[in-house]
Write a structure and sequence with these properties.
This protein has 650 residues and is α/β, with parallel strands linked by helices. The chain is 45% helix and 17% strand.
Length: 650
């Protein structure tokens, strides 16, 4: 079927050749069947055919014989709109040119100025010989990603046989050399015959040792190092982590493709001011450099600034803090039981004291004592009955002698009840000391309700990310923090030191901060460590200028490193993870003052209350004695008065 279609297409073009006079023009090297095969082989749906002297009239039958849409451009006309020549096309485009035309060179120069020899366009160039090919292509901005196929007819073949060549330059702007290599042949009978043993990526991996220019963002470096020494060093891994991680990726990439990078340092990523990008992004946007080693996250405003490659590193802003102890000194001894349980215990104690008091009253009756032959008396007051129940409940024993069976049953029931309550209560207290305290602050909303103080890393990325978060709880927390902006924005070291002391939540990128935290926190402090996410993980990656020929190579190489485990290896060094709480088999946990404070408050309260009552009793007793003396003196005076009066009468 394939040969039948080829013969039919060949017969059609033969008929066209017989009808057109231009087909006999000297120097005509284009072949319509080869164009059709090239378009089909690359699965192109759009093709721009350029020619001069009206030779493209031979190709009027293409749109009727193929699914590909063809556009015709006469490059001999001076009014070619180069800026809009490919603007309306969204698919990959095939472009056919004839290098034998005198106007072709100027046409291609204009194309070259606009960097149209890009991976998005497939170029099929018909050339009379190799010398003409090299003369033309060496004048053009052809780079490593160019999809240029050169077709040169075999001598004396009447355009029935062609040699096909691949043409590219590692970097025409950085002194690369043009490379034209034969990749196959084409014959009218057999069609395309390409040597596809290697991919374009593998065929063009030698960049001839050329030097590209790169930029890396390093805001701060240790005082005793240059920025290159800092990039090479493994000390202070929490500083400039993204740049140092990507730097090692590009070191491997340089060995893979045989090129070098001349690095320049930028103090900041940069932003847009008065329509002009500043910092590292500005250098990329103006094509002052070829590569940015530092990774950037994707934002809408970056669309016209640079071209992203592939994600190599992911940042994760979080609030990190030492979780406060959940023990409230005022309720520590009531935590083991819920309120309903305490109510039940109090009710049981009151009822037990009530029944016990009545039983003691019955036992103290004289007839009952005679029947049991026991002269001892149990105090049947309300206070003694309640005190007795509390003594049993608190495992302090009892001092009564129950005589009746009913009193013995009640006493035994209270003893069993107190043992069970004591077991549950003690088990909870001991268990709470031996197990890790639960962490209740897990969301931004809960974090905002806490009594923690807050701080933010002074990194531009963290500040921007926090400022752009629109979730309601984050907005409320941001307003609270930004009321004292100068105090709450601090560098990484100060923020982590405050976090270590406790009672402080620090907003930073944990992928780098955790590297430092592992070295500065003790095991107990690590167990208290908690983080709260307020924004999802943000991937970042190296970037290049728009229409950069290196985009494809950087993407493929980073993906290959990921498959080979190289990224994982470096991630273990440069990407921090939350340290795990050490698991200890035996851990002797002392009771701290926070847990014990309630007992101290209770005994102090009891001492003060008893002292106040003692004073009250003394005052009352003194008052009663004074009244008694006054009454006695008054009676005595009355008695003496009566006696004197009686003596006078006698």
């Amino acid at each position: 079927m394939k040969h039948i279609q080829r013969i039919a297409l060949l017969l059609f073009f033969v008929g066209q050749l017989l009808e057109k006079v231009n087909c006999s023009n000297e120097g005509q090297v284009m072949n319509n069947v080869l164009i059709s095969d090239y378009i089909n082989a690359n699965n192109l749906k759009i093709c721009v055919l350029s020619s001069c002297n009206g030779n493209l009239e031979l190709l009027n039958g293409f749109n009727d014989k193929s699914d590909t849409w063809y556009s015709f451009t006469n490059i001999a006309v001076q009014s070619v709109e180069f800026d809009t020549l490919f603007a309306r096309f969204s698919h990959q485009i095939g472009v056919v040119v004839d290098l034998s035309c005198s106007q072709t060179v100027e046409f291609l120069r204009e194309i070259s100025k606009r960097m149209f020899f890009h991976r998005e366009r497939y170029w099929l160039m018909f050339s009379p010989d190799m010398n003409r090919t090299e003369d033309v292509l060496q004048q053009l901005n052809v780079n490593a990603d160019a999809e240029i196929t050169v077709a040169i007819p075999v001598e004396d073949s009447a355009r029935k046989n062609y040699r096909l060549y691949e043409a590219f330059n590692p970097s025409s702007t950085r002194g690369g050399l043009l490379n034209v290599t034969q990749i196959g042949t084409w014959t009218l009978i057999d069609g395309l015959n390409l040597a596809l043993n290697k991919t374009k990526f593998e065929n063009r991996r030698d960049f001839q040792g050329i030097t590209f220019r790169g930029v890396v963002t390093i805001p701060k470096i240790p005082n005793h190092e240059t920025f290159l020494q800092h990039l090479e060093s493994v000390e202070f891994p929490h500083l400039n982590t993204i740049s140092r991680f990507n730097y090692r990726i590009f070191q491997i990439m340089q060995q893979m493709f045989n090129f070098k990078i001349f690095l320049q340092r930028a103090n900041s990523d940069g932003d847009l001011r008065n329509g002009r990008w500043q910092g590292a992004i500005g250098m990329i946007n103006r094509r002052e450099v070829d590569i940015s080693v530092s990774g950037y996250r994707w934002k809408d405003e970056y669309y016209d600034a640079f071209e992203a490659t592939v994600n190599s590193y992911a940042t994760q802003p979080k609030f990190i803090f030492r979780h406060p102890k959940l023990v409230d000194s005022s309720t520590v001894f009531t935590e083991p039981f819920k309120n309903i349980v305490w109510v039940c215990i109090v009710v049981v104690c009151i009822l037990s004291a009530y029944f016990l008091r009545h039983i003691f009253t019955a036992e103290n009756h004289k007839k009952v004592k005679v029947n049991f032959g026991n002269e001892s008396i149990n105090d049947d007051s309300w206070s003694n009955s309640l005190l007795l129940i509390l003594g049993i409940l608190f495992q302090q024993g009892y001092s009564i002698e129950p005589l009746m069976i009913s009193s013995r049953i009640l006493t035994l029931s209270i003893l069993v009840f107190s043992v069970l309550v004591s077991q549950f209560y003690s088990a909870f207290i001991v268990g709470s000391l031996l197990t890790e305290a639960p962490k209740s602050i897990k969301t931004v909303k809960q974090l905002g309700r806490s009594s923690l103080n807050f701080g933010i890393d002074d990194s531009a990325y963290i500040l921007e990310t926090f400022d752009q978060s629109n979730e309601d709880s984050v907005v409320k927390l941001r307003k609270r923090i930004m009321k004292n902006r100068d105090k709450n924005i601090m560098d990484l070291h100060e923020g982590l030191d405050l976090m270590k002391k406790g009672g402080f939540a620090f907003n930073t990128d944990v992928t780098s901060s955790y590297l430092k935290i592992k070295k500065m926190l003790t095991d107990d402090e690590i167990c208290d460590l908690q983080d709260v996410v307020y924004v999802r993980e943000t991937p970042t990656g190296p970037v290049v200028p728009k229409k950069s020929p290196l985009t494809e190579w950087i993407k493929i190489s980073i993906l290959k490193m990921g498959e080979a485990g190289i990224l994982t290896y470096h991630a273990k060094i440069w990407i921090g993870t939350k340290p795990e709480c050490p698991v200890r088999i035996v851990d002797f946990v002392p009771v701290d003052l926070l847990h014990f404070s309630t007992a101290l408050y209770l005994i102090i309260f009891g001492i003060i209350l008893s002292f106040l009552i003692l004073l009250a009793e003394i005052l009352v007793h003194s008052f009663q004695n004074s009244n008694r003396e006054i009454n006695t003196n008054a009676i005595s005076m009355k008695w003496l008065t009566l006696r004197k009066f009686d003596n006078k009468l006698h």
